[in-house]
Amino acid sequence: MSSSDDGGYVHDPGAFDEDGTRAASAEDDDWVRNPDHPEAADREFDWRGWTVVGMIVLAFIVAPVAITFWPPGVGYRFALLTLPLFPAFFLAVTAVWATTRP
């Protein structure tokens, strides 16, 4: 398979100057001179955004309230470590999922 058939990045030493910086090519100049406008992308606040809002509410309101009302005799250390940890983890995963578009 030749380097023109792979469709991905192929290291080309001839594309770099003597000092190691990449030499400008016609392909590179196109996106620099005519960048896509942010409004051209399909970025609407849809159900993914509301899912992130729900996770924010869970992490910043529900978890602290659950810690406050957790019975002191029933694993208080568990409440202080685990109750904030799981909503924060799911908030991070949901935020990455919601902002990654195919």
Number of helices: 3
Tell me the helix content. 40-55%
Strand content: under 5%
Low-confidence stretches: none
The value of Rg in angstroms is 24 Å
Q: What summary fits the major beta sheet?
A: none
Task: Output the helix-strand order.
Answer: HHH
Number of strands: 0
Q: What is the CA-CA span between the terminal residues?
A: 28 Å
Average of per-residue pLDDT values: 79
The backbone outline, from C-alpha atoms, is: elongated
Structural class designation: mainly alpha
Describe the structure.
The chain has helices at residues 26-33, 47-68, 76-99. α2 runs antiparallel to α3. It is built from 3 helices and no strands. It is mainly α and 102 residues long. The model has no long low-confidence stretch (mean pLDDT 79). The radius of gyration is 24 Å and the shape is elongated. 2% of the residues are buried. It has a domain at 41-99.
Brief descriptors of the model:
about 0% strand, transmembrane helix, about 100 residues, single chain, mainly alpha, membrane, transmembrane, DUF7977
What is the gist of this entry?
By secondary structure, the chain is mainly alpha-helical. It has helices at about 25-35, 45-70, 75-100.
Set out the fold topology:
Blueprint: H1 26-33, H2 47-68, H3 76-99
Helix pairs in contact: 2-3
